[in-house]
Amino acid sequence: MAVLDYNGRNIWTGTDGTPVTTYNIDSDRRDIDVSNDIAQLMPEATPFLSILMRARKVPVNSMEFIWYDEEEQVWWTKLTASYLAGTAHTEEVISLADASFIRPKDLLKNGSTGEIMYVKSKAGNDVTVERGYGYDAQASSGTDAVASTGTDDNIMRMSNAMEENSNAPETHATQPNKLFNYVQTFRTPFDASMANQIEGKRAGTDTRTRLSKIKAVEHRIDIEKQMMFGERYEDVSNKVRMTGGLIQFIKSNAYDVGTTNGGTLSEAEFENFCEMAFDWGSKRKLFLTSPRIGSIINQFGASRIETTSGEETYGMRLRRLISFHGDVIIATTKLFEKDYAHTGLMLDIENIDYRPAGGNDSKLRKNIQENDKLGWKDEYLTMAGLRVRLEKTHSILTGVTG
Questions:
Q1: Is the pLDDT score of 14 beyond 90?
Q2: Which of 238 and 305 is assigned the larger pLDDT?
Q3: Are residues 252 and 385 in the same domain?
Q4: Is the pTM of this model over 0.85?
């Protein structure tokens, strides 16, 4: 029969030695990872971050992280000087704004006149072409060597046309753009004296429980503000890094309703914005905006707006507007207020990543006070940055006043 031990026993029997594993550390000494819980509990407070934490979390192991974006293929340029009507199948030099992607034996087409030209050679942005290359005098077909309509006609590179038994044409390749951002350290501490913790309270929960909930919201809102409005910077002398936010990275596609329609966001005006916003990237994007703009959109045609289920939109119930150009998932945030109440961001979530560093993804660190402190101190800690890829897939709407 087993001998019963009636002496006091340690409720945790950790083991000494190496290597140290999680089983060698008492659970009360661990930092508690609360990132997923916060994302689930506070989607209305921080919709952008809540979506990223569910859908686009990519850990990083350095305080500076780099990525490369390949630009889209270019096939349009413009004239910089007009040209006159000429004779089909004779050579002429035309001047272009950018001929870097054009090679001998390429076919060019003037979008305004329809004329096709065959590239013979080039020197910088001056291109020697055979005019009216598609014109067939025998069949009276094709476009003759007509005059350009102006100095800024759009010129399209169509393809190359190689002779029989030809050697390979000249090559052309581009290099990707190098971008970077920093990991920022976010800390939200809260504390109380031991006497305060011991003393009973008539209303609500104890101080520690109450503050842990309040500070979780504060911590997450701080991160969301930084990842929308922040600017990338490294203060070397003080050893501080700041992560750049969405607005810093989105530069190419800006639509100012104040300029285009006097600040009025009509249904037609929003459709114009969508035409630009969906020109690149996926056909399903997140529109992050203010409650004011959300109210305006809600007055659009009811047949175009529907409520999504949580499973469809990153676990959240959101509104979806069906535009001709793509589906717009609408999430409003109170952080877009005052100067940002007139703003909206159309985001291709597939090209945005939340990048926590070293496993420090919103941890609740308990008992970080000094050893001789007669009280306690906890904190929420996050070390993370933002990666915004292919910035042309994202757009910004501004100037909405009504």
A1: no
A2: 238
A3: yes
A4: no
Cα–Cα distance for residue pair 109/93, rounded to 1 Å:
15
Domain enclosing residue 135, as ranges = 76-160
| % of the chain surpassing 70 pLDDT | 86
CA distances to 70, 313, 318, 325, 328 from 307, rounded to whole Å, are 35, 10, 6, 19, 11
* For residue 30, pLDDT beyond 60: no
Which of 363, 382, 51, 350 has its CA nearest to residue 226? Answer: 382
The 10 Å Cβ neighbour count of residue 288 is 22
Phi, psi for 296 (deg, rounded to 5): -65, -45
Packing angle between helix 47-55 and helix 207-229, nearest 10 degrees? Answer: 90
Strands, E assignment, 212-359: 233-235, 240-242, 254-256, 284-289, 305-307, 319-322, 327-332, 344-347, 352-356
The reported pLDDT for the residue numbered 317 is: 77
- In a domain? residue 297: yes
pLDDT beyond 60 at 37: no
Give the chain's domain count.
Answer: 2
SS3 225: helix
385 C-beta neighbours (distance < 10 Å), count: 27
140 and 37 together in one domain: no
Separation between Cα atoms, residue 90 and residue 106, nearest integer Å: 16
Around 82, how many Cα atoms within 13 Å sit in the side-chain half-sphere?
10
Q: Which of 193, 211, 194 is nearest to 364 (CA)?
A: 211
Residues 257 and 340 occupy one common structural domain: yes
Q: Angle at the Cα of 262 (from 261 to 267), degrees rounded to 5?
A: 40
Closest CA to 345 of 269, 402, 401, 294: 294
Residue 133 lies in a domain: yes
Is the model more confident about 31 or about 198? 198
Residue 132: CB atoms within 10 Å:
24
